[in-house]
Amino acid sequence: MLRIREGGLWTTVQDMGRQGYYHLGLPPSGAADKYSFIIGNLLLGNPVECAGLEMTLLGPVIEFGKKTSIALTGASVQAFINNRPLPMWEVVAVDEGDVLSFRFCKKGVKSYLCVSGGIQVPEVLGSRSTYVLSRLGGHEGRKLGVGDELMIGEPLPGAFKQIGKRVPVEFIPEWNDAKNLRVVMGISGNRISDEGIKTFLDSEWIVSAESDRVAYRYMGSSISFEEHAPPFGAGSSSSNVVDFAYPIGALMVPNEGEVIVLLNDATSGGGFVTIGTVISPDLDLIAQSRPMTRCRFLTITVDQAIQARMERKKQLMRLDEILKEQG
Amino acid sequence: MFTLPETRFDFGGDEYIYAEISRDMSAESNFKALAIVNELRERNIPGIVDIVPSNASYLVRYNPEILSPRDLLDYLKEIDITKSDPAQLNLSIRMVEIPTWYDDPISRQYSERFKNRHQEPGLSNFEFAMKANGFTDKEAFIEAHSRMPNLITMVGFLPGTAWGFPLGLAPGEIIQTPKYLSPRTHTPRQGVGIGGAFTVVYPVNGTGSYQLIGMSAVPVYDADKRLIDLEDAYFLARPGDLWKHRPIDEQEYNRIVAEVEQGTYRYHMKQIDFSPQEYVMKGKAYIQELMEGF
């Protein structure tokens, strides 16, 4: 069991996400930075579906109710077991009564705590991920607070043999300030003027403070719309289309001065002009970017998007092999 | 019979294909979306993760490690051409009554609170919707909004939010309003809003940009599963259902809200076999037939 002594800023139970309910408006949820989350489970020898904790900027204070093994990945943060520094990207043993605490995270936004056997909150609609807006999944559908108690799995067979396994440095992401985000253009981009598309791709965009697991907002440039009579039923603004289901990663242009990228807790549909979709591997980078981070959007084809996705998958498979060979 | 333009397809990143049936909203476009979605669901294709019908389009999420995007696109195009005839559709749906207190104090209070984001800050959302549609009489507006049922053409935004598009009306008879200039940060749970030609009932407190014209006495999302009719589903909304707003007064609103709180409320519902073909042929008369005795 994990006893939560302090909740931290925004700590939720997440896994790989919920599928098959988007037609009801239920977004996938799940870890915002899948790459870091998956590595946490790979380190422990867990199935990747095992649930862990997603922590935001300031982590919780947790007392362990039993001996197990853990791994801390994601945004770079100083953490302590009792008063002993806890290394990141490495499997560490903890004893019953040990207390894990965190300092404010230095780079990136989301850190992940995985435990052997996973966090055992009940599955809701096929996933343990928390979706706070509908109070669904995770621990009572909400972020963790003082006094919460979370069941954890029994350490898996061989769990303690994993201790000391470590991610080689070349697999550890650097949370650089400037980011390139890859986009497959399309959806209703034809409602943006040619000049607007050019400005969108040529400009540097800056993450605004109103960004979270639902959506990231970017400011810093201006995109002009095509002059069009609004479609029937859409409302009368030039940024309105007939409401439709947004892909996760959709890049919406609600007005000329703002673009919004939808993330895992997205509002699943709406009526804003959508210029394209950020590819899934790059959603991890968005989730780890702080307000004021600078970024550019690069256009790629769907074939390049699949290639980028497969490259990341191969990288994770290579890491898995390396970890299996260690110790 | 059904005359629709060719569907336009687009890739959405590495996991989605978006299909736009028409740029403008029409019931026919939505029937076509439902026909295709039903066909796709029946085929149960490994690698397809989510199938989402929406107002005049549909969205497919797939795992590109199982399905090649280009093969799936060709496959969808074929279904779009060969299996999309709404005339073949027979939908088993429900007509559900939404008791609605129009021009209520909560909607007025939210209009006031967010007036700095509104095109006409001096008017309540209800007054704005009346004006935008040329009404001066409140009762006539309520009658115009509530007389015909809305087809649930899409579910989403926040889980359980259903877009309703009125059936049996000529495009010129459909009440339409612009959305807020900038979305409200708060919207009351069970608020009834109009945006474009669509009516929604907000399932939870959250953001929103539709004009608030009333309050539904009944929930459309039941997180605690207190109501017997929502026991299996959490959500009231199902694509293809018909929702009929019934105007109620404050007294009845309070009575129904109390029943919901006690968990004794039962939705007024009727099972219907709905034929899009008959609807397109007979229009309003067909809907009136379905509404008999409801």
Automatic annotation (TrEMBL), chain A:
<dbReference type="GO" id="GO:0016787">
    <property type="term" value="F:hydrolase activity"/>
</dbReference>
<dbReference type="GO" id="GO:0016740">
    <property type="term" value="F:transferase activity"/>
</dbReference>
<keyword id="KW-0808">Transferase</keyword>
<protein>
    <submittedName>
        <fullName>Biotin-dependent carboxyltransferase</fullName>
    </submittedName>
</protein>
<dbReference type="InterPro" id="IPR052708">
    <property type="entry name" value="PxpC"/>
</dbReference>
<keyword id="KW-0378">Hydrolase</keyword>
<keyword id="KW-0547">Nucleotide-binding</keyword>
<dbReference type="InterPro" id="IPR029000">
    <property type="entry name" value="Cyclophilin-like_dom_sf"/>
</dbReference>
<dbReference type="Pfam" id="PF02626">
    <property type="entry name" value="CT_A_B"/>
</dbReference>
<dbReference type="GO" id="GO:0005524">
    <property type="term" value="F:ATP binding"/>
</dbReference>
<dbReference type="InterPro" id="IPR003778">
    <property type="entry name" value="CT_A_B"/>
</dbReference>
<feature type="domain" description="Carboxyltransferase">
    <location>
        <begin position="23"/>
        <end position="315"/>
    </location>
</feature>
<keyword id="KW-0067">ATP-binding</keyword>
UniProtKB/TrEMBL annotation, chain B:
<dbReference type="Pfam" id="PF02682">
    <property type="entry name" value="CT_C_D"/>
</dbReference>
<keyword id="KW-0547">Nucleotide-binding</keyword>
<feature type="domain" description="Carboxyltransferase">
    <location>
        <begin position="7"/>
        <end position="236"/>
    </location>
</feature>
<keyword id="KW-0378">Hydrolase</keyword>
<keyword id="KW-0808">Transferase</keyword>
<protein>
    <submittedName>
        <fullName>Carboxyltransferase domain-containing protein</fullName>
    </submittedName>
</protein>
<keyword id="KW-0067">ATP-binding</keyword>
<dbReference type="InterPro" id="IPR029000">
    <property type="entry name" value="Cyclophilin-like_dom_sf"/>
</dbReference>
<dbReference type="GO" id="GO:0016740">
    <property type="term" value="F:transferase activity"/>
</dbReference>
<dbReference type="InterPro" id="IPR010016">
    <property type="entry name" value="PxpB"/>
</dbReference>
<dbReference type="GO" id="GO:0016787">
    <property type="term" value="F:hydrolase activity"/>
</dbReference>
<dbReference type="GO" id="GO:0005524">
    <property type="term" value="F:ATP binding"/>
</dbReference>
<dbReference type="InterPro" id="IPR003833">
    <property type="entry name" value="CT_C_D"/>
</dbReference>
